[in-house]
Specification:
elongated; mainly alpha; single chain; 72% helix
């Protein structure tokens, strides 16, 4: 950690006030820390074990369908809530530093978007769950459109949050975390772009991009939790 970064961290920590407030901030940051591993473990375990699911053809959102769909729905809701709560912790520790306004807002919007993606389930498609006809449905339901809209909002918010965090760390002189944030934002930008363009195994590149961006945010939250 550079001297500039150290002073910035101490200033942000002091702004949180009493010991009770600092403990509350650490708890809020913990929410952001655990969001990424929780999402990855629940989603990837299902992707590897549920009959008929192929991550190179099916988006992780498709796991919300079928008899075990409640697991992925719960994953969306829980992780979304953790990100929304974690945004408050980030707001506290970033107070008075570059990006202190937009990083928490964007992370919170991403969390709300994930909650909406859990509430509005996409239609079964392309052979999953087992018994579903291959290919996309001839017509999508309104809740499928709502799911896609929620996903787009989530992805764009995460990408923007990562790039604002990259600028934040560049401004305070912490090159390592600036690079980490840029990697997260770029991975999701490219993964989502490739998926939207119909590229081969686009659902896989999207999954990798989302998890990379979420991991960047979780690691940055962990950094501030340790130094708080």
């Amino acid at each position: 950690m550079t001297t500039v970064d150290h002073r910035s961290t101490l200033s942000a920590a002091a702004a949180t006030g009493t010991p009770a407030a600092r403990r509350a901030t650490r708890s809020l940051l913990t929410c952001a820390v655990v969001a990424s591993p929780l999402w990855a473990v629940v989603a990837l375990t299902q992707a590897a074990t549920r009959d008929g699911f192929d991550i190179t053809r099916h988006p992780l959102s498709a796991l919300s369908n079928g008899s075990l769909g409640w697991l992925q729905i719960a994953d969306f809701l829980a992780v979304g809530a953790l990100l929304a709560l974690g945004a408050t912790g980030l707001r506290r520790v970033l107070h008075g530093t570059p990006g202190s306004t937009w990083v928490p807002r964007l992370v919170r919007v991403a969390g709300i978007g994930m909650i909406a993606a859990g509430v509005f389930v996409m239609d079964p498609a392309d052979g999953f769950p087992v018994g579903t006809p291959y290919g996309m449905p001839a017509a999508l339901t309104w809740h499928s459109y709502a799911h896609f809209a929620a996903g787009s909002i989530t992805f764009l918010s995460m990408i923007a949050a990562c790039y604002v965090l990259a600028r934040h760390f560049s401004r305070i002189g912490n090159r390592g975390y600036a690079v980490l944030a840029r990697i997260g934002g770029t991975a999701l930008l490219l993964g989502n772009g490739w998926s939207m363009s119909g590229g081969k195994a686009g659902t896989l590149t999207l999954a990798v991009g989302v998890m990379t961006a979420m991991s960047s945010i979780s690691l940055i939250a962990a950094h501030y939790r340790r130094s708080h």
